[in-house]
Amino acid sequence: MLITLTENKEALIENYKGLITYEPTCIVVKGKHTTLTITGTRLNIKYFTNDDMKIEGCIQCIEYIH
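Above: the chain's sequence. Below: its structure in token form.
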């Protein structure tokens, strides 16, 4: 999984496998071997495809769990 972060406002996530949680304060994304948790406020998935997704909002924390 690859993440490109633009300040604390946008995150582009590539090569993800699935979406576990989608709430305005927490988005959890499953990768092949990791889980990614993004917390913040007003989080929103701007778009997603089978290969990537863009998350917008005020991103406060990004956590990898392996």
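The longest strand covers residues 35-48.
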